[in-house]
Every structure is written in structure tokens, then in C-alpha cells.
Input
Amino acid sequence: MNKTNKQFFELLLAFTQKEIKARYKNAVLGFLWIFLNPVIQMVVMGFVFSLIFRFNIQDYYLFLFAGLLPWNFFSLSLTKATPSIVYERSLIQKSAFPREIIPLSIVLSNFFHILITLSLFFIFLVAIGKWQILIPTNLFFIATNLFFLLIFTSSVSLITSSLNVYWRDINFFTQALVLIWFYATPILYPLSLIPERFQIIFYLNPLSGIFTTFQKAIIGNGSFPYSVLISQYFIIICFFLASLILFKNRAKYFSDWL
Amino acid sequence: MNNVAVKLDNISKKYILHHEKPTLMESFFKKREEFWALKNINFEVKKGEKLGIIGSNGAGKSTLLKTICGITTPSTGKVKTFGRIASLIELTAGFHPDLTGEENAYINGLLLGMGRSEIKKKFKKIVDFSELHHFIDSPFYTYSGGMMLRLGFSIAIHSNPDILIVDEVLTAGDRAFQEKCQKRIKDFFQEKTVLFVSHNLPLIKSFCPNSIWLDKGKIKSKGKTKKVVSQYLTKYK
Output
């Protein structure tokens, strides 16, 4: 690895640590909250959704977790990263460093959280006798989809955070977008519930493949055509490269607009 | 070998002037008002040279420094710098109030271009120079303004830059610490490239053999500091 790359990753790591540490620093329970929060969240969700809201699916609350946990990562990262450049204006005005570190460190710190939450969830699954996540192909699918979810979340965050510098409306737009996107992604309902002729609309949403495959790997519900999944992966990678280029271009003039 | 430290090639910087928040119609149709903060700036700083930059408020000094540091990009022209730059313009950038002095020192050092292992090696020296031994593991919001500046200065000076950009702030902390800083900067002046912006003309005269006078975004005069300063003074008499 050459020197500037090493420097970049060290700085990215330091900023990610800062995000995580600063969040828990002055809480009495400190890092315990990293575990406590998702447990409370899951208990509440499990209660609410298995009582009021149910589709005819076996273990509906497990199905829900499989979708809601990654969704929380996506929506939290996006809503927090979008205004991040504007929030860090004083730093940007005073120091020259790769600007993409700011939104990326927020996404990464949230990624750290989802990894912990998911491990807890998997321990819980194994404890109640749902062994299927331990099958190697399922583990492979979980890891791959987490990776693409991370890449996709980073891309969207890079775009919205850089555009938000010029048009502060983007922040409000993103909040609305996250809400719409939530219902447009198979999280509360399985994709198989959608009539076949409408399913093609879902193929346009890069998150639908990730989420459906995720649910399938975790609780064995749902199916998604591999050809579409592969093309969605491909699109996600292209999208990521495009967002990096856009961000780099815009970042040159951030300090003039803050 | 190349003995140039900073080279500015026909630099201009245009800003869009922002007035009172425009209405929706205006923001789409009204022609944008432009403002040139820098116009066709050319100069070169040799390695080891000490260059003073003077000029009244709004002359473009800060914009010039920002383009050299790489904080902003010029509208036209090219900036070339050779070596690590540290600016003493803003010592407390990148400090987070909830983190400890030590954690902040690492982040700040990385922002200045040091590697993690390098900071680790110099950490003791940084703390020694700042004289903050007792507080280095306290959260930053408990620090006083002077303590923050001390730590910031200490990190900047230990980042061992090739090019140092010094703004007015040679005045970190109390008198004793100030003297220590000024001595350190003077040592630094011996061998490194320095760009020095100040309104303190005697200080510029004593530090920098050559100077540039910026006025309304243009170089009004450059050359021997004595000559440039006297021209600058006659205009304001």
C-alpha cells in the first residue's frame, strides 16, 4: 500500500473511531449501550409486530428482524451522513484532507453497529434452534449482501452529502426518500406476496435483491432470481464509482459554499 | 533536484456573491454576481525561503493561503507544492469536545499528514512541549482555550512540515508559552520554507527577507521586504 492510501485509511479509521467513541463517551453504561440498544429494539419490535401486524408467514417477527436490522443501518447512515459535510464546516474550512472521509466514517460507524446487532441476532437464532444461518452458503450470502449494502449505502451518502452543500433542500428530500424507500423495499412484507407481473418493478430497486436474499439466508423465506441479483450487484458497483467521481468533483469547492 | 517549494501559476479565484436569501424565481433566473478574490497571481517560493505576505483586510490573503494549503481549489491556474504543509492558521481544527486530549492529538496529527506510528513515536514530545501531562486523558470540553491552543501548536510543530504557513497567531497561550513558541518558530525559520502573513510589519521585516503585497486580489508589489513595506506604508499615509 502506498503512503497516501495508508494515510487515507488511517484517517478514515480514526474518524470512524471518533464517531463511535464520541457517541458513548459520557454515558454511564458506556459501550454497553451498543448491545443494549438493539436488544431493546428487537424486543419492542417483536412484541408490536407479532401482535398487531402480521402476514401469513411462519415466525413473522424473525422475518421482520432480518429486514429491519439492515434497513436501520441504511436509513440511519443516510439521514446522518447527508447533512454531515455542512455540520463539519469548520473542519472543512480549516483543514485540507479527503472530504469523503466525513460521510464514509459515519456509514462505517453505523456498519460497526449493525455487525454487533446482527451477531446478537444470530446468537439468538441459534439459541432458539434455527441453525440454518450456520450453513456455509448462507453465511456466504449474508457476507456478500452486507458488503454490497455497505457499498450502496456509501454511494447514496456520498451523493446526498455532497449535493446538500449546494442545495440544503437535499436533506429534506432525503428524509422523504427514506420513508418512501422503506415501503418500496420488501421489509414488512415478503416479495413473494407481490403479484408476479409487478415484481419487475422491484427489480429496479437495488435494495430489493439484497434484502430478499438476506431474509432467505437467515430464515429461509423468499427467493430472488440470481440473474437479477448479479446485475443489481453490477449496477451497485458502477453506482459506487460514479458517486466517488461526483463527490471528488464537488469536494474541490466545498469550502466556498460553507 | 527541484528546489521549489511552492509554485503558483496564474491563480485566480472566483466567488459567487451571496446576498439575502433569493426567492425561488430569482435563484433560477437572476444572473449570479461574481467576485474575484484573486486575479492572476504568479509567484514561486524556493525551498528554505521565507516569504512575508502583507495587505489590508479583504485583499485576498486568506484565500491565497487556503488555495496553497489545498482547502479550496482555484478557479483557474495551478498550485504546486512540494512537501508536507502545516498551517498555523487554525490550531484547533478537528478537535472534538467529547474525546480526550490524547485521542484528539491523534486525529489532529493525522489531519496534518502524520502517520499513526509517527504520532505514537512523537507523542511524548508533543505532550512535553504542551505541558499538559496532567490533563491529556481528560475530555476536551474541560480544556481552557489556552490549553487547546497549546496542544494544537505542539502537534503542528511536531508534524515536522516542509512548508509552514503562519498567520497572525504566534500568540498561543500565556507569555511563557508564547516565548517558547516564538523560539521554536525561529528555529524553524532557519531551515524550512515559511509563508508568513501578518499585519505586524516590524515582525515581518525581522523574519522575512522577501515579501509580497496583495491588494484587491492582485500582487501590487513584490521583492525585498524593506521596499515592499515602505510602498505599502506610503499608500496608507
User: Anything to note?
Assistant: DSSP finds eleven helices and no strands in chain A. Chain A touches chain B at residues 3, 6-7, 10-11, 14-15, 17-18, 21-22, 25-26, 90-97, 252-253, 255-256 (CB under 8 Å). Chain A has one domain: 3-256. Residues 3-256 of chain A form one domain.
